[in-house]
Every structure is written in structure tokens, then in C-alpha cells.
């Protein structure tokens, strides 16, 4: 099994910790360093397994000063997966799971129809022993415990000094009651347990006299035997932390070999500790993980713990500088996943360090009492509940949501009119005018975000990031400085992106902990005359390279008016992307005829992302079996950006006396492919002229739909289906003259709201234009329905009696 830790032996005895860590930091970042100078060994932890393997190959059999070191991947220690302790823990884990399965099984006594049987009792059951002890007669003395033997009284057993021995050997004389003399069972000898402190170490081969003399005072020999009592041998108050338990038997009072005492005697204690740990994890489903590398992030922890079950939260505390504190909290959705992660990851290597996992305390939440909450107004209760759910709720229904009042304020300010004049109550077209205004603001916002490196396609992803927050429903007139100052109360703000309209913004914080605190505190906060809506931004929101070509789709000037002249070529053009613009292959010409593919590969190999180089050749007619260079070739790179970088750096390079001419390689298309593409374009042109508008408000009329979509092209038809009571059905169809106009309208109105509802736009499936094909399709559909009804009438009622043509009855 590969490990991210390496084991080093043969180190110089005078090597220090700093020198040890610095020496192995030459290749990669060291996350942990443990040096044992007396044993001349040490351990080094790296962030990844690849770094550890690389360091092993590099440092193995090398020298530090005059000492040759041996470096290998660290193997599990004696207390790890191959140890006895780990095996016992595995057994306890399996026993616990088996017991859980048995407890979840159905009790046969509760099964209906089964007569109850009296089963056998388990004598080792502690509850049964406790019940028998309580219910026993009063004349019978109660025992001190399940395994505790009865302590004899001084009248039954008195220590007597043997007259024949001057070494004061102590024996126990039993005085049984007359008439009740019984021979003790051989299998159950009588024990007397004593606890003695500060016992000196005695050899196992010593005699009983030596053992007793080491535990008695030297003045005991001069004392009268009558002055010796049992109290001299009873346990005294413990004054040290080392206690020894000695058992004396009346049949055999010799000292037992201490080698029999092993770790098995303390298994019950360890088992109870493990059970208590598992009970705590089962109760909270939360883990406390410590000894983490300071370079580990929440994303690293999430990916490491996610295979064992769904997680609700990963909390990595940081200090004032933003550095990790070396521990984290993992909150799982269910306790079984937490137990599985604890069992598999405790003591395992993570980025060069051995994890130490403990049960985590339940997360502290400042929740109001139900009684106090019930006494508040309903609006206040709803506000508190909505704010408490803000951290886990995602507003993925519309990421570019804007406050309609703020949009109207921006439009009225730009037009130089008041909002009352913009929203004329006497006009019936105010709804779609507001929608057009919102669309213009959305297009401007998308263009601004794209220009500043925001990937708009990332909004389609459901996975959310940890440091970026979308701020929506910003009141009109709020500045970037005010928004930044509001978020700086929770941590360092890296960037604030607010479009010129000021209706939405993106705020990026330095640490995920700071972003969570800001999100929980500022969600649904009232600012001026508006309430802020916050949403966690999607993951990978920002792109590293901002391309000017990506702004074409989001340019607010894309809108095609009805007065613009459109050529015949534009009517069928579908904005087919050219493969050459997205290729990662370069075309090289003006090569020397002596330049081979190996020579070209040797020159371009140091470039980043280089894959292969090839010089085009042709057969040599004068020398069969040989080839001639054609003076050009091709270079293949991993990505388009790497190919562009190679083009800029190597164009004009002098190779074998010739200056290279490098260009982007364009894939050639034959005539047949061109015809197929043209036919497909013409076929698709009929399919992409009609748009279906879903989630349409029921108050919308055909005039509103026509007014909204006519701003993006000439409409062929507008249809708003209605019910039998003359009310709309919540969707409509808008058909344009050209596919370009339909596509522009679809892109522009994708995030638009009409009367408070977000419009859902899709291309409608085209109907058959041929009347004969339409009639044939309808006939097949009706025939299939008739046949289905006929078959159902025959087999639907089961078997029935019918008369054949010859008059015979058949059942």
C-alpha cells in the first residue's frame, strides 16, 4: 500500500530537526518531520503519494554528511493495520455490527401465529445477576459483584504464626461451624484478594519466605505472635499511582508467574472505551479530526472523507491570518457513515500526517426556544426560520435574479424620465416593456461579468463553491465601497464585481469560514428599502484566461432590429463553429528538406504541452524505399492555449538555416462533407424558428407576447393556447422568420421575468410541413388507438363464454 510518508534510517546522530526537514524539502513541500537522533531514524511526510515516491527514488542510498541513508516508503507500525491491537479492534467492530444486525432482526415471539416459548436464560447476563441478587433472601449475604469472591471474617480465617518455622510464614486456618463442615470444591478454590502498594521487585524464582519477608517489616520477627492481626495485611490508602494486585489461595499460596498477565486482561476496559466512542459518534454523526497538515484545505478534507457517505459540513478553523489551526470538524448526514469513516481513517496517513479522529461534540446553535418563538408574530417567525435555513438552501432557480424596482430605477435614470412616466398605469403594455428593460440590464450584466473573467456556463452546475457569494436585490444607488465594507467585517475581501447597473454583485472572500459567516449573517438583511438575497456562487466561477471572443454572445448590442438588412446567406446560417479556431494543432512550413521528424521533435519538446511533431514526406521516385521531405509538417499540443503560446514564441525560429513559418492548422473539409453540412443546416433551419414559452403568467395576452418578442426580429405567428373557459394554459408559441432571429431572442430572454415569473424558453419541435405525411401520421395514431381498445375489450374482463360459428359452446 502506497503511503505519503517515507522512512529514513542511517542518519547522522548530530543531525537536528531543522536540518532534517530542510534536507528533504528540496523536491516537494514537507508536511511533517519526525526525527529520532538516538536511533538515527526519522519520518518525513509529503502532501501526495507521488511526492513520497519521488523522494524515495531521489534520496535513497544518498549521503547526509558522511552517513549513507536508506529511504523507503513508511510501512504500518506495530500499532497499525497489521498489529494485534488493530486485529482486536476489527473483531470488536465486527462484533458490534453483528450485534446491531441481531438486534434489528424480528423477534419470533412477536410474530403472529407463533406460540410463545420459554427460552433458556443467559446466566452471564448482568441484568439477570442483578435481579437475582436483589431478590435473594435476607439471610443470604449479598456479594460485592459478579466476580468478587466473599471476604472471610476474622473469626473464620486468622493468620497464625507457624511454631515450626521461625521465618514467620503466614497461613490461613479455616474454622468452620460444627455440623456444617463441607469440603470445598476443587474447581472453585477460595481466594482472598489484597491490594498492596509500593511493592519492591522480587525475582520469580524466590521462595514464599523471601516473598513474604520483602513485604513485611524487619521488626516483625521480634514481635509477639499474638500481636499480629489481620489488619497488618489489609490494604492501606493508596499513595502512589502504581498498584499491584496479589491473590492468595488457601490451597496454593505460591506466587503466580507474572508473565501470565497480558494485554488480554485489559480488553474489557478498551472495549468499553471503544463502545463509548462509537456511541458518541452514533449520537452526533460528527468527527473531530486533528494532526492535519497546515496546507490542507476544506476541499481536500471533503474529497478524503466523502467516499464514506454524504457530508453536511466540513469546518476547518483558521486564525486571524487565514492559516489553518491543524484540526477540523466533519459533519456527516448519518451516523453509519461517520462510524465507517472513523473506523477506516483513524491513524491513517493524510498528506504525510497520521490522522487522529475523535468523536466531535454536537454543533452549538443559537436556537430560540419553541415557547419564545411561538409568542412572536407570524411574520417574525417566518423571517427567523428563513434566515436559519439560508445557509443550507440554494436559490438555483435563477442566479441572475434582479429586483424589478431597481431595474426600473436604472432605466428611468438612463432615459431621463421618472418611474411614473415609465410605468404608465393607463397603458396595457407596461408588463412587456419592463421585461424588455430587464433583458437589456441582464445582457449588460452578462457582458460585464464575462469581461472580468466570470464563466457564465458555470451557473448551470449544481455544485457550489465556498468563497464566492452572489448578492441579489441590491437597492438602487448602493456603491461598491459600501458593499465591500459590509463584507469586510467578516474577513478579507479579494474582489467585488458590480455591473454598471448595480442590481447584482459577486463578492469573493479569502477563506471559506469567512464566507460562511458572512452568508449566515447578511442573508435576508434589510438594506435601505430592500432585502438582500444571497446565494452561494457555483464552483470554478472564474476563468484564468478571458477571451474577447466569449463576449460575442453576451454583448448587449447583439439585438437584431427589424430594420436591419439581412442577406440571403444569413437566413440559413447557423453560426457553425469552425474547427480550426479551436484546434491545438499547428502548421509548420518552410522547413529545410534535411529536417526530419526527430529533429523537429527535439526542437519543440521543451515547450509546455507538446505532444508530437511530424514532417510530411513522400516516396522518393529515384530511390525506392526512401522518402523525401515535403517542406512542411504539423505540431500537436495538449490545449489550444499552449498551441497559441508556441505559435507566438517559435514563429520565425531559425532551424537548419530556414526560418519557420507557423500558423494555426485548419482542418480541410471535402465537397461531400460541405454538401452534407449544408443539407443539415437547411434541415435544422426549419426546426429552430419556433420557440415555446413556458411558465407564462395566466394574465398574459397575445399582445404582450408579440410585443416582447418583436424587439428581436420579425414574427411569423404568435399563438397562446387557451382553455375552454377562455383562460390561458400557461405557455405560448412564437415563430420567427429566420433561425438567427429565433436564436437571438432565445439567448436574450433566457433570464427575463414577465409579471414576476421567469420565462422558460426552448425550441419547439417542428411539425411535418407535408399535408400527406401529416394525414398518414394521424391515421396511424387513430388506428393504433382503435386496436388497443379492441384488444382491451377482449382480454380486459378475463375468461368469458362465447358461441362459435358452428353453434358449439366453448369455455
TrEMBL record:
Keywords: Coiled coil, Nucleus, Repeat, Ribonucleoprotein, RNA-binding, rRNA processing. Residues 761-788 form a coiled coil. Its main location: nucleus. GO terms for cellular component: nucleus; ribonucleoprotein complex. CDD domains: RRM3_MRD1 (cd12568). Signal peptide: none annotated. GO terms for biological process: rRNA processing. SMART domains: RRM. GO terms for molecular function: mRNA binding. Residues 138-159 are annotated as: Disordered. It comes from the Eukaryota. Residues 4-76, 285-362, 467-539, 584-667, 689-766 form the RRM domain. InterPro entries: Mrd1_RRM3, RRM_dom, RRM_MRD1_RNA_proc_ribogen. It is found in: Nucleus. Belongs to the RRM MRD1 family. PANTHER family: RNA-BINDING MOTIF PROTEIN 14B, RNA-BINDING PROTEIN 28. This is Multiple RNA-binding domain-containing protein 1.
Amino acid at each position: 500500500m502506497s503511503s505519503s510518508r517515507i522512512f529514513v534510517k542511517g542518519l547522522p546522530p548530530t543531525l537536528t530537526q531543522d536540518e532534517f526537514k530542510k534536507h528533504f524539502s528540496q523536491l516537494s513541500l514537507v508536511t511533517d518531520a519526525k526525527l529520532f537522533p538516538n536511533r538515527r531514524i526519522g519520518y518525513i511526510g509529503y502532501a501526495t503519494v507521488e511526492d513520497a515516491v519521488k523522494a524515495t527514488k531521489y534520496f535513497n542510498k544518498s549521503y547526509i554528511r558522511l552517513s549513507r541513508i536508506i529511504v523507503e516508503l513508511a510501512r504500518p507500525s506495530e500499532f497499525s493495520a497489521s498489529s494485534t491491537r488493530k486485529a482486536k479492534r476489527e473483531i470488536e467492530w465486527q462484533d458490534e455490527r453483528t450485534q446491531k444486525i441481531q438486534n434489528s432482526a424480528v423477534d419470533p415471539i412477536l410474530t403472529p401465529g407463533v406460540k410463545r416459548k420459554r427460552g433458556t436464560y443467559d446466566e452471564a447476563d448482568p441484568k439477570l445477576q442483578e435481579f437475582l441478587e436483589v431478590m435473594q433472601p435476607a439471610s443470604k449475604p449479598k456479594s460485592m459483584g459478579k466476580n468478587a469472591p466473599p471476604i472471610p471474617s476474622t473469626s473464620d480465617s486468622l493468620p497464625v504464626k507457624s511454631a515450626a518455622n521461625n521465618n514467620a510464614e503466614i497461613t490461613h486456618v479455616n474454622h468452620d461451624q460444627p455440623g456444617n463442615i463441607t469440603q470445598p470444591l476443587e474447581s472453585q478454590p477460595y481466594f482472598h484478594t489484597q491490594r498492596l502498594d509500593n511493592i519492591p521487585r522480587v525475582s520469580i524464582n524466590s521462595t514464599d519466605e523471601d516473598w513474604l519477608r520483602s513485604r513485611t517489616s524487619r521488626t516483625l520477627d521480634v514481635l509477639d505472635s499474638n500481636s499480629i492481626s489481620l489488619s497488618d495485611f489489609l490494604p492501606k490508602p493508596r499513595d502512589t499511582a502504581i498498584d499491584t494486585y496479589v491473590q492468595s489461595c488457601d490451597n496454593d499460596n505460591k506466587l503466580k508467574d507474572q508473565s501470565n498477565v497480558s494485554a488480554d486482561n485489559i480488553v474489557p476496559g478498551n472495549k468499553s472505551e471503544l463502545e463509548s466512542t462509537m456511541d458518541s459518534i452514533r449520537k452526533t454523526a460528527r468527527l473531530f479530526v486533528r494532526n492535519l497538515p497546515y496546507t490542507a484545505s476544506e476541499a481536500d478534507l471533503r474529497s478524503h472523507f466523502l467516499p464514506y457517505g454524504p457530508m453536511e459540513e466540513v469546518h476547518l478553523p483558521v486564525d486571524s491570518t487565514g492559516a489553518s489551526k491543524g484540526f477540523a470538524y466533519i459533519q456527516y448526514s448519518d451516523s453509519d457513515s461517520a462510524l465507517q469513516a472513523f473506523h477506516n481513517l483513524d491513524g491513517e496517513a493524510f498528506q504525510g500526517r497520521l490522522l487522529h479522529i475523535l468523536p466531535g461534540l454536537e454543533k452549538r446553535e443559537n436556537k430560540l426556544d419553541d415557547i419564545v418563538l411561538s409568542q412572536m408574530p407570524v411574520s417574525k417567525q417566518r423571517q427567523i426560520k428563513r434566515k436559519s435555513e439560508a445557509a443550507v438552501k440554494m436559490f438555483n432557480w435563477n442566479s441572475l435574479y434582479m429586483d424589478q424596482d431597481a431595474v426600473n430605477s436604472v432605466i428611468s435614470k438612463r432615459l431621463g424620465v421618472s418611474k411614473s412616466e415609465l410605468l404608465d398605469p393607463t397603458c396595457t403594455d407596461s408588463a412587456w416593456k419592463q421585461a424588455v428593460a430587464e433583458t437589456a440590464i441582464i445582457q449588460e450584466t452578462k457582458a460585464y461579468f464575462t469581461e472580468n473573467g466570470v464563466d457564465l456556463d458555470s451557473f448551470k452546475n449544481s455544485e457550489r463553491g465556498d468563497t464566492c457569494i452572489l448578492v441579489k436585490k441590491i437597492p438602487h444607488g448602493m456603491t461598491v465601497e459600501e458593499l465591500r465594507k459590509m463584507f469586510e467585517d467578516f474577513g478579507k475581501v479579494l474582489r467585488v464585481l458590480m455591473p454598471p447597473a448595480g442590481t447584482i454583485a459577486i463578492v469573493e472572500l479569502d477563506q471559506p469560514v469567512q464566507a460562511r459567516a458572512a452568508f449566515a449573517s447578511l442573508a435576508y438583511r434589510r438594506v435601505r428599502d430592500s432585502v438582500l438575497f444571497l446565494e452561494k456562487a457555483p464552483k470554478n466561477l472564474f476563468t484564468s484566461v478571458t477571451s474577447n471572443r466569449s463576449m460575442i454572445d453576451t454583448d448587449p448590442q447583439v439585438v437584431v432590429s427589424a430594420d436591419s438588412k439581412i442577406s440571403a446567406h444569413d437566413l440559413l446560417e447557423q453560426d457553425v463553429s469552425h474547427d480550426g479556431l479551436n484546434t491545438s494543432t499547428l502548421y509548420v512550413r518552410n522547413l529545410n528538406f534535411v529536417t526530419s521528424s526527430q529533429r523537429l521533435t527535439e526542437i519543440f519538446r521543451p515547450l509546455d504541452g507538446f505532444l508530437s511533431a511530424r514532417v510530411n514526406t513522400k516516396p522518393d521516385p529515384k530511390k525506392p524505399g526512401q522518402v523525401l521531405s515535403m517542406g512542411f509538417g504539423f505540431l500537436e499540443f495538449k490545449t489550444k492555449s499552449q498551441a497559441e503560446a508556441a505559435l507566438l514564441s517559435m514563429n520565425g525560429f531559425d532551424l537548419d538555416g530556414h526560418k519557420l513559418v507557423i500558423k494555426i492548422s485548419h482542418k480541410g473539409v471535402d465537397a461531400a462533407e460541405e454538401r452534407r453540412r449544408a443539407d443539415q443546416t437547411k434541415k435544422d433551419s426549419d426546426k429552430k424558428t419556433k420557440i415555446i414559452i413556458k411558465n407564462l403568467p395566466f394574465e398574459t395576452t397575445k399582445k404582450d407576447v408579440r410585443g416582447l418578442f418583436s424587439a428581436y426580429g420579425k414574427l411569423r405567428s404568435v399563438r397562446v393556447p387557451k382553455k375552454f373557459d377562455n383562460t390561458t394554459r400557461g405557455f405560448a408559441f412564437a415563430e420567427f422568420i429566420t433561425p438567427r432571429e429565433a436564436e437571438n431572442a432565445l439567448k436574450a430572454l433566457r433570464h427575463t421575468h414577465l409579471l414576476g415569473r421567469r420565462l422558460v424558453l426552448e425550441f419547439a419541435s417542428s411539425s411535418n410541413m407535408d399535408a400527406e405525411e401529416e394525414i398518414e401520421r394521424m391515421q396511424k395514431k387513430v388506428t393504433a388507438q382503435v386496436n388497443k381498445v379492441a384488444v382491451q375489450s377482449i382480454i380486459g374482463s378475463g375468461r368469458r363464454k362465447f358461441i362459435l360459428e358452428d353453434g358449439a359452446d366453448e369455455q
